[in-house]
Amino acid sequence: MVSSTEYGSHTWNLLLTVDHQHEGVKKEIELQVTGDLHVGGLMLKLVEKIEIAQDWSDYAFWWEQKKCWLLKTQWTLDKCGVQADAKLIFTTQHKMLRLRLPNMKTVRLKVSFSSMVFRAVSDICKMLNIRRSEELSLLKQSEGTLKKKKKKDKNSKEPATEDILNLCNSPVSSGLPANPGLYSKTMTPIYDPVSGSPASSTITWFSDGSSAEQNCSILALSHPTCSPEMLAEMYQPRTLADKAKLNAGWLDSSRSLMEQGVQEEDQLLLRFKYYTFFDLNPKYDAVRINQIYEQARWAILLEEIDCTEEEMLIFAALQAYHVSKLSLSSETQDSTCESEVDEVEAALSNLEVTLEGGNKSNILEDITDIPKLADNLKLVRPKKLALKAIKTYWFVFRDTSISYFKNKESAQGEPVEKLNLKGCEVVPDVNVAAKKFGIKLLIPVADGMNEVYLRCDNEDQYARWMAACVLASKGRTMADSSYQPEVQKILSFLQMKNWTMCSQAASEPENVDMKPECFVSPRYTKKFKSKQLTARILEAHQNVSQMSLVEAKLRFIQAWQSLPEFGLSYYVVRFKGSKKDDVLGVSYNRLIRIDMATGDPITTWRFSNMKQWNVNWEIRQVAIEFDQNVSIAFTCLSADCKIIHEYIGGYIFLSTRSKDHNETLDEELFHKLTGGQE
């Protein structure tokens, strides 16, 4: 038997803080505990001492000094390292959070502050009815991107509060499981595939109140754009360093919100982090398609991604007279005929919205037939003093290489030069109005990038050669099943650019109720007068006027994906051995080293050639090994190196997805690839 005095020597006092809303009940409670008391036992003792009858199931201990949750209730206090000086707070795991969605609407909902961010985002996406949650993450706005907005925010605090959509009563937000049917491929469609409006059976899922239909509409439909004044107040990156600030605040997916300093009622941004949009389907993805469209739209309006004047007018036309007007009309018009549905599905198969998409039906033909291209093209080589040498050669494209000869007759002999395009950068250089169809190739060589321009004679020739170059850069040949869809996608985009002037629209722009400044970036509003912009947008609109709402959004997304800078997330880094800072562009299949002063790519490294990557957490340095004994190392200056480490692992994780698999994510594999060992 142990005497009471001996037992007392092993006990110690622990001061606990209880986060409750009951007035008149003290929040700090002192308990006598022992080191072998497990966390679950401590909870029980505390609840008995409080004597408040309520549901405590969502409560857990938050260790303030160590910034961690004590979620393993079977662990003892000794095993957790808890001693008498520990400051433990007994608080709810689910708390209210404000999220700014890509469409700039703010929603307020209850989120787990104790789960890893990856799991929390998955739960958020179930609440918002967004499939493929692994493509999204949470972003804290960096200080640099908030400076311009401070003055405006002080003057307009009240209206911002009124705009918040409260979703705290949805089933998932309340801790209930989401309807599994929302993620089933065999279920009845929950969205009209043409208008994008929710089916009546879906309305009740959001909430039981009368505002449920409005909630669906806000998430799945686009609403009239902001004023030019509001656009001017928002942060617009001017340089690559500015663009790097946009990507500095991504939260660590392997840690909880509380561990990263997020407090209740804080505001975060919910954004598509990974630009690989897998298995887009209008029948189930109206919210997802709309939010991708909105993220693309704002990236273009705020000049986060560069585009030509011609491309800007296409984007404006798709926004101005299609998405905005059709969104308004579709709120009152829900019925569509079967033929329209079939047309959209047919258009979808041609659009190939997913970056790696393709029709797999011609596998036997692909195996037996390796096609080649042979044409007269112009070769343009930049020379010093801004002069260019332009000469016509006979080009032959075979496998992943281009060879060129003096003429067609000499094609049986040795080529003038053979260019291996595997791992190169392919940049379109097109002006349809000026009949300019160019392809800029940046081919990796030992000391940087070899720059080559090809000039095509017409749209068809350009589409065939451009598609072949894009595939070759990824290590694929024209035998790949995605070649023809890639050709069609390029032709479709060129067709949108190739508009003819409508005399009525050109002569009477003042009769059209339109604010063109809302649909183009500030750079173009300064360049053109309002009437000029209106006329040019109407001119561009002639080629998109017959599209349905969903098809217009998908075309917008496709055009966004066609931009040279699409999918690049920028970071300021210092490479090992270098004396100056560079910019690192992270894409879904490659890393690009970019000169910060000129914006020119220096070197490209493909993920497909990567053998391994790791992080030295002591000096915060990322080291990567590639094939052929190529290795690089760099420190990240504009963000934590963990963000780049997670980006690389995340893209590799997303490349393992398949339509054949069920939609359950391998969360363990994601954390294995992205978590790191700090």
CATH fold type of the domain at 371-478: PH-domain like
Number of strands: 24
Distance between the termini: 46 Å
Low-confidence stretches: 4-8, 149-162, 176-187, 200-210, 332-343, 352-368, 501-511
What is the CATH homologous superfamily assignment of the domain at 371-478? Pleckstrin-homology domain (PH domain)/Phosphotyrosine-binding domain (PTB)
CATH class of the domain at 371-478: Mainly Beta
Oligomer: single chain
Please state the CA-atom Rg, rounded to the nearest Å: 28 Å
CATH architecture of the domain at 371-478: Roll
Level of helix content?
25-40%
- The structure class reads alpha+beta
Strand content: 15-25%
Provide the spatial order of strands within the biggest beta sheet: 14-13-12-11-17-16-15
| Outline | globular
Characterization of the model:
The strands form 4 sheets. The protein has a 7-stranded antiparallel sheet, covered by helices on one side. Helix 8 packs across helix 9 (212-220). Among the domains are: 11-92, Phosphatidylinositol 3-kinase Catalytic Subunit, Chain A, domain 1 (Ubiquitin-like (UB roll)), CATH 3.10.20.90; 371-478, PH-domain like (Roll); 569-675, PH-domain like (Roll), CATH 2.30.29.30. The protein has 678 residues and is α+β, with helices and mostly antiparallel strands. The radius of gyration is 28 Å and the shape is globular. The protein has 23 helices and 24 strands. Helices cover 33% and strands 23% of the residues. Residues 4-8, 149-162, 176-187, 200-210, 332-343, 352-368 and 501-511 have low confidence and may be disordered. Strand 16 (436-445) and strand 17 (448-456) form a beta hairpin.
